[in-house]
From TrEMBL:
GO molecular function, one term: peptidase activity
InterPro entries, sorted: Clp_N_dom_sf (IPR036628), Clp_R_N (IPR004176)
Keyword Hydrolase carried by entry: yes
Designated name of the protein: Clp protease
SUPFAM superfamilies to which the protein is assigned, alphabetical: Double Clp-N motif
Single biological process term from Gene Ontology: proteolysis
Keyword Hydrolase on entry: yes
Keyword annotations: Hydrolase, Protease, Repeat
Length: 145
C-alpha cells in the first residue's frame, strides 16, 4: 500500500488499508460492517488530507492531483505511526494469543488512538472509532484472532 501510494514509509493508514483489502479476516469483515472498505477508507483519507491542508490555507482537490509515482527501487520503511500501532496491538488486553500479532490485534492497535491521520479520517467518515475498537477488543477476547 505504501509503495503504491509513493510513500517512503509504511504508516498506520497503509496498515488499515491492507487490513481492509484482505477481505477474508475477521478484522476486514468488522471494518466492512462499519462501512470501511479499501475504497471508503481511501476516500476518507483523501477528505482528511484536503481538510488538513485547508486548515493550513491550502485548497486542494485530491482527485485533481496526479497519481503518485512509486519508486520501485526503494522499499518503504516502517513509520512512526506503524511502530506505535504495533506496540499498542501487542499491549492490547486481553493477553489471549499473546505474542500472536494477527489482523484483529493489529486493528485494535490502529483504533487505540484518538489522534493522528487514521483517527481524523474515521471521524470524517462518521465512524465511531471507540465503538469499533471495543467490538474488535471483544472479538479478540472471545478468541477470534
Amino acid at each position: 500500500m505504501a509503495r503504491r501510494d509513493g510513500s517512503r514509509s509504511i504508516e498506520a493508514e497503509h496498515v488499515l488499508l491492507a487490513l481492509a483489502a484482505t477481505r477474508t479476516t475477521s478484522a476486514a469483515r468488522m471494518l466492512a460492517e462499519a462501512g470501511l472498505t479499501e475504497e471508503t477508507i481511501r476516500a476518507a483519507l483523501d477528505r482528511e488530507l484536503e481538510q488538513s491542508l485547508a486548515v493550513a490555507g491550502i485548497a486542494v482537490r485530491i482527485g485533481l492531483l496526479p497519481e503518485a509515482t512509486p519508486d520501485e527501487s526503494r522499499n518503504p520503511h516502517i513509520g512512526d505511526s506503524t511502530r506505535l500501532l504495533l506496540k499498542r496491538a501487542m499491549d492490547a488486553p486481553p493477553k489471549l494469543g499473546a505474542g500472536r500479532l494477527g489482523p484483529l490485534r493489529i486493528l485494535v492497535g490502529i483504533l487505540d488512538t484518538e489522534r493522528g491521520r487514521v483517527a481524523r479520517a474515521l471521524r470524517a467518515a462518521g465512524v465511531d472509532r471507540a465503538a469499533l475498537r471495543a467490538r474488535a477488543a471483544e472479538a479478540l477476547a472471545a478468541g477470534n484472532h
